[in-house]
Design brief:
11 strands; two-stranded antiparallel sheet; globular; alpha+beta; Replication Fork Single-Stranded DNA Binding Protein; nine-stranded mixed sheet
Length: 335
């Protein structure tokens, strides 16, 4: 290309704008504020992680949300105690918590930690985000949901149930309400309905779900899950890099007044407040029960969350053809 041609293109660029490719999230992030009347309801089922089904299907770690008092912004930091390592976060917490100074005792909360869990789930029914139905996503949850899973795996009374079993796992009715300005999961629970893993395909622009059964081809099922699952290993504890060390030291210096405070942390991520807004006129968890989830798909609260009535009959053992064909609404049975 000649210089003259370069000049011409420079002064007459005719810039073309290409369509931005939408980045598809791999996480399932339901919140009460995203639901009808500040109540989010959906039906999901837990999925084992194909890389490590027995020990990796629940990724567990301790995390701390460190707020920088200089900018009043913050970020999550994995606590080394998650893997049995010495943790400066816990050291600072207990040092301040045991202080004779009431002011320092209050500062201890800056370094508090909480349990964080992550698992793969398949969205069975979600009227708030129907485009997610049938997808396998990462669901990050807290202690309350973990306790409900643990009660199934290690019941005090009754028979053990494995929610991650791909053909015999129970459906999980997720009901998120707002209580004291925070998301509340008390009404969520496993129901008696068994929901097998459903393989998905697109036919005429519609999502077609095919439930598997015990006779489904195991290799085909495994390959499909592998191809369609996010990497759950990304949610395991991560060793600190130098930037994380620097940030933690910065927060410690800023909170305690000991040492020099770095000025480079002015662009950290804001805390997400969208799930902690006031409930307004919406109903609270005291006014809803999972039992109210009806079967009719009405406009009333809880309508349209009927559990699938899956027919698992008919499979030749060579291909995944078990169960009923059809789109999601057919499987869910809504009218």
């Amino acid at each position: 290309m000649s210089e003259q041609e370069n000049y011409s293109a420079f002064f007459n660029p005719n810039v073309e704008v290409t369509e931005q490719k939408s980045s598809q999230s791999t996480e399932y992030s339901p919140k009460a504020s995203k639901g009808k009347n500040n109540v989010y309801q959906s039906i999901i089922r837990f999925i084992p992680w194909y890389k490590n089904p027995t020990h990796g299907s629940i990724q567990e770690k301790w995390v701390s949300y460190l707020t920088d008092p200089v900018t009043n912004r913050g970020r999550y930091v994995d606590c080394p105690s998650s893997v049995g390592q010495k943790s400066i976060l816990q050291d600072m917490y207990w040092k301040l918590k045991k202080s004779e100074s009431v002011q320092e005792q209050k500062l201890a909360d800056t370094f508090s930690r909480r349990h964080s869990y992550a698992s793969l789930i398949q969205v069975i029914k979600d009227e708030n985000a129907p485009e997610l139905e049938g997808k396998i996503l990462v669901y990050r949850y807290g202690v309350k949901i973990w306790e409900k899973i643990n009660q199934e795996l290690k019941p005090i009374v009754g028979e053990k149930h494995d929610p991650f079993h791909i053909t015999d796992g129970k459906a999980f009715a997720l009901v998120i309400t707002i209580q004291n300005k925070f998301n509340n999961y008390d009404q969520s629970r496993f129901v008696d309905k068994r929901i097998p893993l459903c393989l998905t395909s697109e036919v005429d622009g519609k999502t077609v779900l095919t439930p598997i059964n015990a006779q489904s081809n195991q290799q085909e099922v495994f390959d499909w899950v592998k191809e369609n699952s996010p990497d759950l290993g990304e949610y395991a504890f991560k060793e600190w890099d130098q930037e994380t060390h620097d940030y933690v030291n910065h927060v410690i210096a800023a909170v305690t007044g000991q040492g020099s405070v770095s000025q480079k942390y002015d662009n950290v991520v804001n805390r997400d407040q969208s799930g902690t807004s006031a409930p307004g006129a919406g109903i609270t968890s005291q006014e809803i029960s999972v039992e109210n989830i009806d079967l009719g798909g009405s406009d009333d609260l809880g309508g349209g969350l009927e559990l699938p009535d899956l027919d698992l009959g008919g499979d030749d053992g060579d291909s995944i053809t078990g169960g009923i064909p059809g789109d999601l609404s057919d499987i869910i049975g809504t009218t």
